[in-house]
């Protein structure tokens, strides 16, 4: 079957501009549904990265009293070093903590003024051998009893909560994306049907003179595909902006643990690719169904 | 060229359009299908290019049982059967030339074929100068000539005409009949549904008369009666 490219291009272009308001509505719903999908994917990739980091990063932090005695500090060091359950520990001294503190509150000079560099608490970053939360918590309880220990903070607990929350958020977004994808498929279906109705006389003539169904179908399916892809293009822009916004927030707050949510280029590229593919497929297939149903009727 | 064997077509609501129809039409024949409105003339024509499917019976076109034809092959069948209608079915947003080219474009004919065949067929139907006009700028007779040009541009074996003169005054109708006669003389089988008594009686061609879905008369060189 010989398709003349100029014919297909001409007909597709004509279809796209025939009903601008419907075309725009279709493009926008596709954009919204794919943005939701993209955001859910961002979160998923972020969580996966978070879990990777979780495995080889700080597991808990033992805060030391600012006025700890050298003996007590030595005892803490000894206990950590001699423990069979600890693979690594690092003491973060006052200067370093203060430097972090300055970085963290660099936009709030008043807070910084209130802090006396000599009163900043110091801490140990402790990496246990067993990354299981229950084990880590049991360990932490032990160290909390040591003299001079001010508080034990579990990264794991924090990460688990975050994990749960992001998982839920991603799931909710996926479901929302699914519903709006359904809506955009139906809108697309009707857009193509309207386009076909507007051209019903032409289609009638085409069938009478022996055009194949594919020949009739293709311009409409390409029209759907282009609408879907344009919608997907908007969603890619939205997702990239979203990612940049998250990245900025993370940098500002020095939330090191969440750094995995600032996705790298290859992750973003693959998410964008999937979104474009999804948009084009939604358009192509729903148009295909609309056309086939019309031609079979 | 066309053969009907015991063909029955019933529409929902118990309207029987064609009952046990048998007919055999040879290559190059010119046949009038006559009978009152609702007698089954249009259905007869629509069955031949598979716009309708029969409930029972077999239909052969150019030796092929079209009932056994796959959906994929229906376009090929239709490329061999030109169709002309009372309401012309021209596309108002296309010029005369574009309306005719369209029929070739959509079956994938190459551009050089289109650019030679379209002017030739417009010349044949007497509209050589009208190529750039739009249908609404033409008279009814001229519009019907465009629609005949479109139906014939691909040189089909068969031309079906469903009341092609129904909307035209007698003088214009004669012109259209001359054109169909010329097309028939090129070897194309022509089937024309009509209830124009004058035309049938003047032309004296084979007449198949339908009444209530039955073929009640099949007569060579017949008149309307």
User: What kind of assembly state do the chains in view correspond to?
Assistant: heterodimer
Number of strands of chain A: 4
Largest beta sheet of chain A: what is the strand line-up? Answer: 2-3-1-4
Q: Which word captures the global form of chain B?
A: globular
Low-confidence stretches of chain A: none
**Rg result of chain A:** 29 Å
- Mean pLDDT of chain B comes to 93
Report the structural category of chain B. alpha/beta
The fraction of residues assigned to DSSP E strands of chain B is: 25-35%
Strand order of the largest sheet of chain B: 6-7-8-3-9-10
Structural class computed from helices and strand pairing of chain A: alpha+beta
**Ends apart, CA distance between termini of chain A:** 23 Å
How many angstroms does the end-to-end distance of chain B come to?
27 Å
Shape of chain A: elongated
Number of alpha- plus pi-helical segments of chain B: 7
Sketch the topology of chain B as an H/E string, one letter per element: EEEHEEHEHHHEHEHEE
Q: What topology emerges from the helices and strands here?
A:
The complex is a heterodimer of chains A (297) and B (225).
Chain A: H1 5-18, H2 20-56, E1 60-64, H3 70-82, E2 86-92, H4 94-104, H5 109-114, E3 122-128, H6 133-144, E4 149-154, H7 155-198, H8 200-209, H9 213-253, H10 265-296
Antiparallel strand pairs in A: 1-3, 1-4, 2-3
Chain B: E1 2-11, E2 15-25, E3 30-34, H1 41-48, E4 56-61, E5 64-65, H2 74-79, E6 81-85, H3 96-105, H4 111-124, H5 140-152, E7 158-162, H6 170-185, E8 189-193, H7 197-203, E9 206-211, E10 214-219
Parallel strand pairs in B: 3-8, 3-9, 6-7, 7-8
Antiparallel strand pairs in B: 1-2, 1-4, 4-5, 9-10
Helix pairs in contact in B: 3-4, 3-5, 4-5, 5-6
